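Before going further, it is useful to explain how the protein records used in this thesis are read. An example of such a record is reproduced below.

***
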Amino acid sequence: MTTKRTSAGMFARFIPLLFFVVMIWFLISTVSLVVKVLYSYLAIPLLLIALFLNYSVVTDYFTGLMREIREDTGKGLIKTAASIAGYPFVFAYLALKAWTKRALGSKRPSVKDQKAKGKDEKGEYIKYKEVEEEDFLELEDIDKKVKVKQTQAKNDNDYDDLFA
């Protein structure tokens, strides 16, 4: 009993490729729609929401940009240019950060709070304090150990002395 194999038509081979092209087109269309909506309608309201929820998030971001320009000019200018070009995404990030700080609270003080306390931004140095302990790095005299091992050696085989 022999069975005939039917070959798939030419169209059946292109179905996965057509599905892939449609999915890529759908993904690109969705992303471009989100970007258009962000740039045209949501950028300014997101900044206002961030300012309303926690204004220190916005001021800290721009203070950080200015500090970055002062400390490392090239990197700071690149970050500033990227912030200007992608301002809706920056404003969305700031709004999300302000919302999470408001909802969850933050243990980290803002830049303004740090300056008010007089703390250095990179941390404070602690004065050196000498601890009085016995010297734990003091080692035994190695000559005494070698003499003891030499007296315990029973045979003249140099190979055995390596592992003794």
Observations:
- The two ends are 80 Å apart (CA to CA).
- The CA atoms of residues 7 and 136 lie 82 Å apart.
